[in-house]
Each structure stands twice: as structure tokens, then as C-alpha cells.
Write a structure and sequence with these properties.
The complex is a heterodimer of chains A (229) and B (302). Chain A has 229 residues and is of the alpha/beta class. Chain A is built from 7 helices and 10 strands. Classes of the chains: A alpha/beta (229), B alpha+beta (302).
Chain lengths: 229, 302
């Protein structure tokens, strides 16, 4: 699903690369935690997968495509296969829950009949049935993140990227979000999640990739957050 | 492509950015109005040229009793000289379209007719007016050929080209047109800059939407289309206003004010307005689309 082959990313005006000769592979259907301190390269990793950045050196393969050789006009097609969730939800405040989810389909030109059918379905998957007409500011943080996950998942992506999805949520709410991501993973979507949340990582017992200073310092299946933290 | 969705995005974008959109509409209307006006003056000049050049003649005044130019040193024109001049003029066909001889008596009659309300008529005797050949050229711009052949010849006092008088007037109109065109061009530059800024503000105020659109894989075209249409709609409204202004100028200023007061000349017809209006709309919408396109490439990249 994802293959990094000797990937180095050096941002302009910086001496130390954000990622340094990183090689790793993530298989289809995996659930992977990306951990490490701030500035360790987690966000850069995710941005490379989304082709928001290009590597300075090395190759990034996503869903069978080498992203360096992907022409600009094919990027949207790549991103339609990838769902994305962020710490700050990124919902549109002037649209309702249903409209926020529908927006993701409207802007890729899906027909209205299709949208009317799948939006209620995905809202049910994330547990928001009955809240379709609410606006984001009427929802709790956990509910807002569920809307964001619904939006990321509504197009049934093969890969879900979650950048600290529980970073703004209290532990109890986080557990619910993790259950939801786990369910999505069991529906066949590969999930890559960066996080600082030790309790969640320790509890889930999934593959853990730890980055530090742009290097992979640990890659462990059924891992925990860290040894001495 | 979902037309409803795009239409609602465009209308909400325009409403959100109403003051800037209005500024775009007004500057487009003013700059295109000036542009159209300068085109109209140009059409007017060409209409008047057609009208007048058809009527202008080269006048060859022959020596009379009082003539004191060197070529008239031999006294008034003789019959032999007059016949020779006529024969030479006829030999210049086809450049010379027609030759008409005006005797002193005819010149006096015409003079009396032209100045019949003026006391000057009573002080002028028939012999004071020179006899002349009125020469009509098939190509009025080739005046020099006639002038060089006849000016300074014995028996000829003066060769006059009426076109020269008209040309001064046309040059004045041409100058006015150029000034209007320059103002219009600078206004169009201002319009482009304003559209660029409007698009920037619009892109900024919708950065949430566009960032989400990029993430979920909306194509560049889909992301930029609402902005492009917004610019095109604003510019289109401005262009329509400018065309309405042009039509008003034609109806009120030209047909109702100028034409009745200056009946001796022709004015531009509706055909000119019909030719200019689409050009104005094309320039307006085209400029807006180009400005928006380049702005968006800069601010809304994948």
C-alpha cells in the first residue's frame, strides 16, 4: 500500500532533513501508529504520502504508483483513494453535518442521487444518525471528529491518513474515535495514524513505527508507545 | 460536473465578496465604456472621411485681373492656357475622376448663394472671384500628383486641396480618440489589478473550502471554476453596463443632440455600435478570465 524507498526530505532553508533515508513498507489492510516527538518527521511522512510534498531523494509508492512520476493532473485521482483526518477536524462551520460530508462528494462531481444514498449510510457507520442537520459548533469535539471521519470515509478510500485525530479530545472520547478507526480498518481500509497518545497505542497493540530526527528508530508489530517514557 | 453546486458556490462567493465584486463591476464598466467610446470615435472619423472625401475636390484657381503670384505675371489666364490645362487634366484619367470648369459668373452666383445673409455680398464684384477647375479625384489621397503637375504653371494662381482642411479636423478627432484609448487602456490595467486582488481575497476567504477540496481530490478545474465564473460574471455585468452606456450615447448624444445640430455631416450608424459591443464584452470577460486564471494558478495550487 505504502512503500518508502530511501526517502529523504530536506525543506528549503533547513540544514537537517525532516526525513533521512527512510525505507519502510506498509501492507494493505494494516493499522499503523506513527509515533515520535514533535519535529521527528511524522507530518512530513504523511504529507509525502498525500503528495503535498515531493521527496528530495528516494521513491514514495502509494497504491501502486510512484508519486514522483505522477503528473500533476493525476494527483486528485490519488487523493480520492485516500481519506484524511486531522487534529483540528477541518469542518466547514456554515454547513450542516450532512452537508459537510456531502461536500466531499459534490466537489469530485458525484451525482446527487449517489450522495443522497451514501451520506446517511456513512453517518450511521460513525454513529451520528439523527444529527444530520446540526452544525459543527453544536457538536462536541468527539462528534465533530466523527463528522470528519465520515467525510474521509464516505468515498470508501483504500487508505485513511489520521494526523493526531485524538489530539484535541479527552481520553474517554478518544476511545470512541479509536473504536471507529478500528472498525474502518476492519472494513478493509489501511489506516496510518500519527499520535502522541501513549494510552491508545499501548491499548491497541498494533504496528508501531517510531521516528526520531527523521530516522525510523523502531518498527514493531503489536508494539507499545515507547520504552522509557 | 454538477451545475447546481457550481452555481450555488458562485452566488455565495459573490455575496460574500460583494463590495469587491461591485468594485470590479464598476471599473470594468467604466474602462470598457471608455474603450467603446474611443472605438466609436474611430468609427465616426471613418464615417466622416467616407462622407467628406467623396465630396472633396481639388480646386485649380486660374489667374484673374488682381492676381499677384509669380505664375500670374503674364496677366489673366488666356484661352490657350485654359484649354491646355483642361486637356492635361483629362489626360490624368483615371486618377482624375471628373473635371468641372467654373467660370467667374458661376463662382459669383455660388458665392452669392453661400453668403446670401451676409452684407459682404454687396461689396464683391463678379470679377473679384477667380475662375477655376474643380477636379474630383478617384483617390483623394493622391492629391500630390495633381498639385505637382499644375502648381506654379503660368495661368494658374493656386492649387487647393480641400482635403487638407478636413485632415486638420480629422487629426483632432484622431487625437481625441487616441487619448480616450490611452485612458481606456490604463483603466483596463487597473481593472486587471483589481480583479487579481479580488481573486486573492476570495481565495483567502474560501481557503477552508479549497483546502478540503484539495484533500478529497477535487480536480484543479473544479476548485478554480467558481472563482473563474465569479470573475467572469462580475466582468460580464460590467461589460453589459458599458454596452448599455454605449447605446445611450448613440441614442441620446448622437441621434438626438449631435445629428440634428450638425446636419451637414454623417454620423456613425447602429452597425458600428453592433460591431463594437461584442468586442467590448469579449475584451471585458477575456481580461477578467485571464487575470483570474493567472491569480488562481498562483494561489490555488494542488
Amino acid at each position: 500500500m505504502i512503500l518508502f524507498d530511501g526517502v529523504t526530505k530536506l525543506y528549503a532553508n533547513q540544514e537537517r532533513p525532516a526525513l533521512d533515508e527512510v525505507s519502510l513498507e506498509i501492507e494493505k489492510g494494516e493499522f499503523v501508529f506513527l509515533v515520535g516527538p514533535s519535529g521527528s518527521g511524522k507530518s512530513t511522512f504523511l504529507r509525502l504520502v498525500l503528495r503535498e510534498e515531493r521527496p528530495t531523494k528516494g521513491q514514495v509508492w502509494v497504491a501502486g504508483k510512484e508519486l514522483n512520476r505522477l503528473s500533476n493532473w493525476k494527483i486528485p485521482a490519488l487523493r480520492r483513494q485516500i481519506g484524511t483526518v486531522f487534529q483540528d477536524f477541518r469542518l466547514l462551520p456554515n454547513k450542516t453535518v450532512a452537508e459537510n460530508v456531502a461536500f466531499a462528494l459534490e466537489v469530485i462531481g458525484k451525482p446527487a442521487s449517489h450522495i443522497r444514498k451514501v451520506v446517511p449510510e456513512v453517518l450511521e457507520v460513525v454513529g451520528l444518525e439523527g444529527k444530520e442537520e446540526r452544525r459543527p459548533d453544536e457538536l462536541s469535539g468527539g462528534e465533530q471528529q466523527r463528522v470528519a471521519i465520515a467525510r474521509a470515509f464516505v468515498n470508501r478510500p483504500i487508505l485513511l491518513i489520521a494526523d493526531e485525530p485524538t489530539g484535541n479530545l479527552d481520553p474517554g472520547t478518544s476511545v470512541g474515535i479509536m473504536k471507529l478507526l478500528d472498525r474502518i480498518n476492519q472494513l478493509g481500509t489501511t489506516v496510518v495514524m500519527s499520535t502522541h497518545d501513549q494510552a491508545i497505542v499501548d491499548q491497541m497493540r498494533r504496528r508501531v513505527i517510531e521516528l526520531e530526527g527523521g530516522h525510523v528508530v523502531r518498527d514493531q508489530s503489536r508494539g507499545v508507545y515507547g520504552y522509557a517514557r | 460536473m454538477r451545475a447546481n453546486f457550481v452555481a450555488s458556490e458562485v452566488s455565495s462567493g459573490i455575496r460574500r465578496n460583494l463590495t469587491m465584486t461591485m468594485a470590479v463591476v464598476i471599473t470594468v464598466a467604466v474602462s470598457l465604456g471608455l474603450f467603446g467610446a474611443s472605438m466609436l470615435v474611430r468609427a465616426q472619423v471613418s464615417t466622416m472621411k467616407d462622407f467628406w472625401y467623396d465630396k472633396v475636390e481639388v480646386s485649380i484657381f486660374l489667374c484673374g485681373k488682381g492676381s499677384d503670384t509669380p505664375s500670374c505675371a503674364g496677366g489673366p489666364v488666356t484661352k490657350a492656357q485654359r484649354d491646355q490645362i483642361k486637356a492635361d487634366l483629362e489626360s490624368l484619367k483615371p486618377l482624375v475622376d471628373s473635371v468641372y470648369y467654373e467660370s467667374q459668373a458661376e463662382a459669383f452666383a455660388r458665392f452669392q448663394e453661400q453668403f446670401k445673409n451676409s452684407p459682404i455680398v454687396d461689396n464683391v464684384k463678379p470679377t473679384a472671384l477667380p475662375e477655376s477647375f474643380r477636379v474630383k479625384l478617384s483617390d483623394p489621397t493622391k492629391y500630390d500628383v495633381v498639385a505637382s503637375a499644375f502648381a506654379g504653371r503660368p495661368g494658374i494662381e493656386q492649387v487647393n486641396d480641400q482635403r487638407k482642411i478636413l485632415d486638420k479636423f480629422f487629426r483632432l478627432l484622431g487625437g481625441l480618440q487616441l487619448i480616450a484609448l490611452l485612458i481606456a487602456l490604463s483603466m483596463l490595467v487597473v481593472t486587471v489589478l483589481l480583479i487579481v486582488n479580488t481573486m486573492r481575497v476570495a481565495a483567502f476567504s474560501r481557503r477552508r473550502e479549497t483546502s478540503i477540496m484539495r484533500l478529497v481530490g477535487a480536480s484543479n478545474f473544479y476548485i478554480q471554476l467558481p472563482f473563474l465564473l465569479e470573475a467572469a460574471v462580475a466582468a460580464g455585468i460590467g461589460a453589459i453596463l458599458a454596452v448599455v452606456g454605449l447605446v445611450f450615447v448613440k441614442i441620446i448624444v448622437i441621434d438626438q443632440v449631435l445629428a440634428p445640430s450638425f446636419q451637414f455631416t454623417a454620423f456613425v450608424g447602429w452597425d458600428a455600435v453592433l460591431a463594437i459591443a461584442p468586442l467590448m464584452i469579449l475584451v471585458g470577460v477575456g481580461l477578467a478570465a485571464i487575470a483570474a486564471f493567472f491569480t488562481l494558478r498562483k494561489y490555488l495550487r494542488v
